[in-house]
Amino acid sequence: MKPVTSILAGVVAALTLCGQQAMADRNSDYWAPENMAARQCSSVHLGYLPAIHSHTAAYTEMVVEKSAPGTYFACNNFGCGYIGVQELAEKEPGGRGQRVAIFSIWDAKDSGDNPHAAPEEERAKLVQKGRLVTTRRFGGEGTGGNSMRPFNWKEGEKIRTLVIERPDGEDFRQLAGYIWDPETNRWELLSCWRIQALYRGLGGGCGFVEDFRRNVESKKYERRATFGPAWRWADNKWSQATQFRFTKDGNPNMEINCRFNPALGFFSLASGGDIKPDADFQLWENKALPTPSTAKEPGEDVMKLITAPKLEPVSYEK
Prior knowledge:
Radius of gyration: 19 Å
Structural class: mainly beta
Largest sheet: 9 strands, antiparallel
Oligomer: single chain
Order of helices and strands: HHEEEEEEEEEEEEEEEEEEH
CATH topology: Jelly Rolls
CATH architecture: Sandwich
Strand content: 35-45%
Strand order of the largest sheet: 7-8-5-4-3-12-1-15-18
Number of helices: 3
CATH class: Mainly Beta
Shape: globular
Number of domains: 1
């Protein structure tokens, strides 16, 4: 594995490239359907239903089955952010793309796509970050705070994420993202941000698969992941998603599908390559699992994080 500093340098370069593309005007030709179709896979999403907008913690599992450079597998895209893992375009020795974990929070109010345009008082502010984590402000898809760290995830292995909302005074809240690290055998903080509390609760949730390399070649490769269980903590109890909704972006490419993975007991999402649509789960359809989930509620280690007090701010050297 490359030294951490080398990996993170590649991360920054990748983010810069993606940011330059995404900073294109939302109504520009860059986002015209025919141009999207020429350069990238369709983004596909799996909504977790029923929506519980008031939930203050979300525990989600995911297993990546196939990946390709420039792919984001989001375990949970909730009301004001997302958490998951990425394979970057930059290579490690042996040819595999560098692999990272990512957690991002949007500013409370929409100030466009320029990260420097948002008023200081409306910006997401870093409270704490975990080991190996780098943070920055982002733009191009709204604005907010981003955190990322090297994370050696592997195909076929379970990825576990946790997002927690904590009150931080009358007008603010903290949003913290954690990932289970099998190398340390513990939950690791990615980052915690303080934002205005225009509302309470994490909102809805979904998993997604996205091709962010967008270089024409990238659409030739299949990406696939299975999502679930998705647990939400609200009213002092856990509720598991029992319905799932299959959706996509405005890209007209239809090399996509969503299908039941009997080995894992949940639905998988796929995009790119030679994938064919699956008649058993139609686009824009809501569907229940064909067999009831036997997943157990999150354990004591998760509850300790949920019931812990808010995190105290830490100053980091620039």
